[in-house]
Design brief:
alpha/beta; Nucleotidyltransferase, domain 5; Hypothetical protein af1432; 3 domains; 6-stranded mixed beta sheet; 14 strands
Length: about 500
């Protein structure tokens, strides 16, 4: 896709609407030439009343029209308008999106929490590269906003697990607003509320320790600007874990009035600082990272990176995340990897039959890795449990709809009759239905060829015999594979039906 010289991102956040304008740079990929921000607390509406008010909608229109005039001055024809929790969690979000479209011509794109994390990760990588720094093998990235804290666990440079905690600083203020008045030691209430979520997150985390704790989000920028101004000019900051401990001890008893009067902090910033400080402090003391990194990163910058310099191998992040999910649910990892290997071989060698696009191979790979996660709940009907767990578990780089498709593929990995009526209930297009069925037929055969979980099948060589309407699966193995033969004959029927072919298996014993 041709990239324009200028590109803009407008981010409708919970406490402000921000616009970032960039231009192409041959050496750096892009350079940010203007940043604008206008305060508006859409999150207050959503978190308190679950709807965006008329007043906020009209104010949003006013801001966006102002930004649109600026885009016209720059003659920018391509932009992306994104929104996160303040809009996505509003019950009237569809009305709000339609109103904004009619009034401004801007089509708001709802960014799921997981995709938001991926953009932040891209932004962090960009800032690390500029600072000539590298992440430690085990890192935790926390993007704290006014609505949520998005937590990204990174291992060997790959995103392996993402979780979102509803402990954003503005959300906390709105949830606990009545306690704020009644309690002199409000920080203790906040601390207890926050620590419950963070402590549970640590119990679930898919790695033994954290070396780097990376902090991003607009709030850390505000905190540095007003409370640690000597660091404000630095675009990349590294501190020790004690840094947040010292901030916590200094400001834990501070009231909103004190932040405003003593430190001359604007009201719309003052009331979110204490919750943010406590969240940062709790993460730092709970995970005990060796080093804390504060890059000047943002979701908007991540969108720019994705536009100008997208990662060439993001599928590796998807597979790393799928492997983490499989490991969490105690899947037989050797079997999962073997099914993945066989699935890839079948997909590539039968492409002339199925003619599915590259993204279908991605879905098949993930389904191969996670098809058995349901055993964690129960062996009986484990395929049903697999569908539920895959649907509900975040996997890096996959949208909710993609997870739903993969969950349907995983559900049907056994030789049981495919429930076509069930598949139709998921409002799939005809193209999606056919794609899912083809991938199911491939996964079933791959799974059957490792039915014993022994990894006996080393290689598949598939021969097409169009003159006889035959597809012959020739497998190479060092041992006899009677169970795999049996399973293949029970699982081949869907493949035969879809491609109008006779599906056969031959076995070649190899020495050594």
């Amino acid at each position: 896709m041709k990239k324009h010289n200028h590109f803009a991102v407008i981010d409708l956040g919970t406490s402000a609407i921000r616009m970032v304008i960039a231009e192409r740079d041959e050496k750096k990929g892009f350079q940010i030439i203007e940043c604008l921000s206008q305060s508006i607390r859409l999150g207050v509406d959503t978190f308190l009343t679950n709807v965006i008010s008329q007043e906020s909608a009209l104010a949003t229109v006013k801001i966006l029209k102002k930004f649109k005039r600026i885009l016209q001055d720059y003659k920018i024809s391509e932009s992306r308008i994104v929104a996160t929790s303040a809009v996505s969690e509003a019950q009237n979000r569809a009305y709000f999106q339609d109103f904004i479209l009619r009034q401004t011509g801007f089509k708001i794109e709802i960014i799921e929490s997981q995709e938001n994390c991926e953009f932040i990760f891209l932004s962090v990588l960009n800032e690390l590269e500029k600072a000539q720094e590298k992440l430690a093998p085990n890192a935790l990235l926390v993007d704290l906003g006014t609505g949520n804290a998005r937590c990204v666990f990174i291992k060997a440079g790959k995103i392996i697990w993402i979780q979102t905690l509803k402990i954003g600083s503005l959300r906390l203020r709105e949830i606990l607003h009545d306690i704020d008045v009644q309690s002199f030691e409000f920080y203790k209430v906040l601390q207890a509320f926050i620590h419950a979520d963070i402590a549970f997150l640590k119990k679930l985390m898919p790695m033994d320790n954290i070396t780097h704790f990376v902090v991003t989000g607009s709030i850390i920028g505000e905190l540095i600007n007003y409370l640690v101004p000597q660091l404000a000019e630095q675009s990349f900051i590294k501190v020790t874990p004690d840094w947040f401990v010292q901030l916590y001890e200094k400001y834990k008893n501070a009231t909103i009035e004190q932040f405003i009067e003593q430190y001359r902090i604007p009201t719309d910033v003052a009331d979110i600082l204490l919750p943010a400080i406590i969240v940062y402090w709790d993460f730092a003391t709970t995970f005990k990272a060796e080093c804390i990194i504060l890059p000047n990163s943002s979701m908007a910058e991540g969108v720019l990176v994705d536009y100008y310099n997208p990662l060439p191998d993001f599928d590796e992040h998807i597979l790393a995340s799928a492997r983490t999910l499989a490991s969490q649910f105690k899947v037989d990892e050797k079997h999962a990897e073997k099914v993945l290997e066989l699935s890839e071989q079948i997909f590539k060698q039968t492409h002339s039959l199925h003619k599915l696009p590259k993204e279908s191979l991605r879905h098949l790979r993930v389904a191969a890795l996670v098809h058995d996660v349901g055993h964690y709940i129960a062996d009986q009907n484990h395929h049903l449990h697999s569908q539920y767990l895959v649907t509900m578990s975040p996997i890096t780089g996959l949208s909710e709809r993609e997870r739903m498709l993969i969950a349907l593929i995983a559900r049907n990995h056994r030789h049981l009759e495919v429930e076509l009526e069930l598949i139709k209930k998921f409002s799939l297009t005809r193209k999606e239905q056919l794609s899912v069925l083809k991938l199911i037929s491939i996964l079933r055969i791959a799974n059957a060829l490792d039915k014993s979980h022994s990894g006996s099948v080393k290689e598949i060589d598939i021969k097409m015999r169009p003159d006889k309407n035959q597809v012959i699966f020739k497998i190479k193995t060092k041992t006899s594979v009677p169970l795999e033969r049996w399973a293949f004959n029970h699982c081949k029927h869907l493949f035969s039906q879809l491609f109008y072919t006779e599906t056969l298996l031959t076995v070649e014993r190899v020495l050594g």
